[in-house]
Design brief:
homodimer; DNA-binding; mainly alpha; two-stranded antiparallel ribbon
DNA sequence: GCTTGACCTTCCAGTTACTGGAGGGCCCAA
DNA sequence: TTGGGCCCTCCAGTAACTGGAAGGTCAAGC
């Protein structure tokens, strides 16, 4: 099956855009080999790594966090504590973002509810923003 | 009081960094006048507009949304319906982001909980990312 | 043998909203 | 006159792609 794939096939397997896979190579995240004609060639390892990165990105990890996680993923002798501490730090970031967004949602939904939203100029939203 | 202020004073009044205020001028958002020596001069109107933008940004509105809101803020004949529709669209964005982040938090906190986080290499977090 | 189309390649520019820094004026107080 | 604290402009960098131009490769069809 997935012995050696082109970038297009790797994209289909991972759900990542072709452009993104090229970008990941450019920044040294996942490095394919090259065939005689200069085309990128992805082995099963590289496809797995791309899948790994795609999932980590979907969980909101930054590229640098992905780089660190990928290094641990490759290192069969890693300590799971290292992985966990990266994940926990990211989890805190996510929770902080949720808190911020909840506050925005609260304020904004209140403003939206109190605005008539008709042809008249009076507007509690603008008034709220003006302070 | 706030008759005419320098950029530094405008920054203190609005809580915005000086650099950000310069940037807002550069993109045509809030345009101060200039004094004879080339320094920016902010009247009460500009200071109010900067405050308005600062609040809108704090609620997560993009610069382009701020530009639209500011145009409505300036237009005393606006229809509040226009403001409300911008705000409601943004509210939907915020809610969508919260939903995404909640899903990430859910998945990630589950992975974190199941990881021993010690010196051993076995790691449910990495396993989960690998799929 | 030649063309067509779907791949693939590189390189360059743009996106969002700033942020940092270099290099240099202006102005008031000691 | 020197110092410090403002102010100015311009340039480059950030994160993570994304779009587009210009061109090479390869198999299928006429």
């Amino acid at each position: 099956m997935s012995a050696l794939t082109s970038i297009g096939d790797a994209a289909k397997h991972t759900g990542l855009p072709v452009k993104t896979i090229r970008y990941y190579e450019e920044i040294g995240l996942v490095l394919p080999r090259r065939s005689a004609n200069g085309y990128r060639v992805f082995g099963p390892t590289e496809v797995h790594e791309l899948t790994f990165v795609a999932r980590a990105r979907a969980l909101g990890f930054s590229i640098e966090e992905c780089r660190a996680l990928l290094a641990l993923y490759r290192d069969k002798d890693r300590a799971s504590g290292e992985v966990k501490s990266i994940a926990r730090a990211h989890l805190r970031d996510i929770e902080a973002k949720i808190t911020d967004l909840e506050a925005m949602r609260q304020t904004l939904s209140h403003l939206v509810e109190t605005c008539a939203g008709d042809d008249r100029p009076d507007c509690p939203i603008l008034a709220g923003l003006a302070g």
